Design the sequence.
């Protein structure tokens, strides 16, 4: 698939920068809604009340066929116990109460770093040998690379997963796959309610209808990026919240998660409020400092009005656990005196 190469190259560069920029680089070729599973292969009674405890236990420990993101029909455990997750949104699983035994550990500084301290690092690219040593009963592979998939499928049932899908879609897919459907629906309902409360509180404290916002970050080599459709922008752009500027909307409509821009474009790109993602590499941090000292930056209306906010790029990510954290962190930063 065309997207595989783009995703792989993004993952390679993001090892230096942090997980957010990685999570921005691809449109999916298949709708996340197409990831569906069939009934368990362990046949159940047509009357739930008539099902015996033994039959129920057998269904929980049986297998079923699951159709993944790229169309594989995979026989997976009904209730996986030893999951390897290789992707950028590990916090999705944590929000459902599932701690993977193996992950891609680019998570230093993330809000869930402590939660996965005992998980093994399966590397990037994913190590087949390491994966095999962990004896997984399910591998969730956030990529569409056929060669890697075929190698992993020899280790354990492996499903491809679209880590760039909308949050609610990802949670429902994982809820289905991990036998956590109710947990997924409960999480979505709670998150939606809390998000609405957050925006209502911000409007009560000065946020105006239709205000625009921009999210920027620096990459090594004095490269300035405007973020459009992953991580913090997913939380910021909301029907009850901020709107993208016309340039950012153009980037979103073009299917780009981010775009490199020159500083001369800042007056066009900057919204009524500006969010800066603090980068990880030291040289990118220094470039950020230089940008903030520049005349073009200081003349932006949002800068003059003191409406610039800062988040560490590793914390302001796309996964469910980070998005929960942002419900508290976003208003705390905006309303900070």
Sequence:
């Amino acid at each position: 698939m065309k997207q595989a190469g783009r995703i792989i190259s993004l993952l390679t560069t993001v090892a230096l920068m942090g997980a957010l920029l990685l999570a921005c680089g691809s449109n999916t070729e298949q709708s996340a809604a197409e990831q569906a599973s069939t009934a368990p292969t362990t046949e159940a009674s047509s009357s739930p009340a008539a099902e015996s405890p033994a039959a129920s236990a057998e269904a929980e420990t049986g297998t079923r066929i699951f159709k993944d993101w790229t169309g594989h029909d995979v026989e997976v455990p009904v209730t996986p116990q030893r999951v390897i997750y290789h992707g950028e949104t590990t916090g999705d699983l944590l929000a459902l109460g599932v701690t993977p035994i193996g992950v891609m550990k680019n998570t230093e500084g993330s809000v869930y770093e402590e939660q996965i301290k005992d998980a093994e690092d399966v590397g990037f690219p994913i190590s087949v040998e390491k994966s095999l040593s962990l004896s997984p009963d399910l591998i969730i592979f956030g990529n569409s690379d056929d060669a890697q998939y075929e190698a992993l499928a020899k280790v354990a049932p492996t499903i491809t997963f679209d880590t760039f899908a909308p949050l609610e879609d990802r949670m429902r897919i994982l809820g289905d796959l991990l036998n956590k459907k109710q947990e997924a629906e409960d999480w979505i309902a709670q998150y939606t309610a809390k998000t609405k409360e957050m925006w209502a509180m911000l409007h009560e404290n000065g946020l105006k209808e239709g205000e625009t916002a921009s999210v920027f970050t620096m990459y090594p080599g004095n490269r300035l990026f405007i973020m459009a459709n992953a991580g913090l922008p997913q939380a910021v752009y909301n029907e009850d919240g901020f709107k993208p500027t016309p340039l950012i909307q153009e980037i979103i409509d073009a299917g780009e998660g981010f775009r490199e821009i020159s500083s001369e474009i800042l007056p066009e790109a900057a919204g009524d409020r500006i969010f800066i993602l603090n980068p990880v590499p030291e040289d990118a941090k220094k470039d950020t400092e230089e940008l903030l000292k520049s005349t073009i930056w200081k003349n932006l209306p949002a800068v003059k009005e003191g409406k610039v906010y800062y988040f560490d790029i590793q914390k302001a990510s796309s996964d469910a656990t980070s998005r929960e954290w942002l419900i508290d962190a976003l208003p705390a930063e905006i309303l900070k005196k």
About this structure: The first strand starts at residue 37 and ends at 40. The chain is about 40% helix and 20% strand. The first helix runs from residue 2 to 17.
